[in-house]
Design a protein that fits this description.
Layout: H1 3-9, E1 13-17, H2 19-25, H3 41-46, E2 51-57, H4 64-84, E3 89-91, H5 95-103, E4 107-114, H6 123-131, E5 134-138, H7 163-175, E6 178-180, H8 186-195, E7 201-202, H9 219-227, E8 231-234, H10 238-241, H11 243-265, H12 267-283, H13 290-303, E9 308-310, H14 331-339, H15 344-358
Parallel strand pairs: 1-2, 2-4, 3-4, 4-5, 5-6, 7-8, 8-9
Bound molecules: zinc ion.
């Protein structure tokens, strides 16, 4: 079978896109091919992507009530979008539905929540979000919250998972909402493994052995995650793929974000600043899509092919790998896996099967 035939035959699942941000903030019409962002239904179809998790993201900087409200807004915008294009996509909450939708030529949209902020300390809100279709929760994002610490903070609040976090994990296990360990601190990671009675996932992280940044998992963490039956879904974000790039891009990203903020306040005065910051950011040579497959290879060498997948982080990242500029380019991963000698069954697992097994 050719790589193209394999890609068409298997169910391809991406476990993390930040597209709901684009729906509301940018007014993206997901049914039409768009130049904005990295994802729309047309480009998903072109890329042979059958299922994707749309992340309901909230910031750790927002007030608690704002978190719940913005999560509801994001959910509403996904529901509106699905109502508008019933012939192209539909909400899915289990693996069987995803396979049925693939047969019908429609895309399965799953819901994940990035940061447990919208739940406050109220398990009935967790149950409500589960009823609305949320099937994984990334426990926190770039700050410590009521549930656990983040890998991004210097000062830790709980040194792992909080007492409420422990109750939350138990209820997520009972309901069948996957616990996502992306973004959390190493101590919190080990608490999650201790407390969770079900396999856990990292929906968009890479390997620290290949790129030593706190957002990535160490070899030992990957082994322990796999022992518990879990899956690590490789992130496409270049600063998580390659350490040299990560160091070189950091000041350019800061300048870009700064320029973006100034541009939002006063577009006229800051147009040139914004343009130059963007140019500098995109002129830096980016790691190739093959680097994504290096991370997949590394996980396979540690724990075999049953515990790895892809979680692009499209629409949540500024820069993409060379050759993987948006979701339509996804077949290059299957091609590269074929070129490296992976068997059909392993490619099927990596490109979606492993994550589907946990749903
Ligand atoms: Zn993220």
């Amino acid at each position: 079978m050719t790589a193209k035939e394999i890609h068409e035959k298997i169910l391809v699942l991406d476990s993390h896109c930040d597209t709901p941000i684009m729906l509301r903030r940018m007014g993206l019409d997901i049914g039409r091919r768009s130049g904005a962002g990295h994802v729309d239904l047309e480009r998903m179809k072109e890329g042979g992507v059958n299922a994707s998790f749309f992340a309901i993201y909230v910031s750790n900087k927002w007030e608690p009530f704002e978190c719940t409200f913005k999560a509801l807004e994001a959910l509403a915008s996904v529901c509106d979008m699905l109502d508008r294009y019933p012939d192209k996509a539909a909400l899915a909450t289990d693996a069987r539905t995803a396979f049925e939708l693939k047969k019908e030529g429609r895309i399965a949209i799953f819901l994940g929540m990035e940061n447990a902020g919208p739940i406050h300390k109220d398990l009935s809100l967790l149950r409500l979000f589960h009823k609305m279709g949320v099937r994984y929760i990334t426990l926190t994002h770039a700050g410590n919250n009521e549930v656990c610490d983040s890998c991004a903070t210097l000062e830790k609040r709980w040194h792992g998972v909080s007492p409420f976090g422990r109750d939350l994990i138990a209820e997520m296990n009972r309901l069948g909402v996957l616990v996502d360990v992306a973004h959390i601190s190493d101590e919190a990671f080990y608490d999650v493994l201790r407390y969770s009675t079900r396999p856990v996932v990292s929906t968009h992280s890479c390997c620290r052995a290949l790129c030593d940044v706190p957002r990535n998992l160490t070899d030992q963490m990957i082994k322990d995650l796999a022992k518990n039956g879990g899956v690590i879904q490789i992130n496409f974000n270049p600063p998580f793929l390659d350490k040299a790039y990560s160091l070189a891009v950091a000041p350019l990203l800061d300048a870009y974000e700064d320029a973006e903020e100034k541009y939002r306040e006063d577009p006229q005065t800051n147009e040139k600043l914004m343009r130059e910051a963007k140019k500098a950011l995109f002129e830096l040579p980016r790691p190739s899509y093959k680097r994504v497959v290096d991370h997949i290879d590394h996980v396979v060498s540690l724990v075999g092919p049953d515990h790895v997948g892809i979680g692009s982080d499209f629409d949540g990242i500024e820069v993409c790998p060379e050759g993987l500029e948006d979701i339509s380019r996804l077949p290059v991963i299957t091609e590269e896996l074929c070129a490296r000698g992976y068997a059909f069954t392993d490619i099927e697992k990596i490109m979606g099967g492993n994550f589907l097994r946990l749903l």
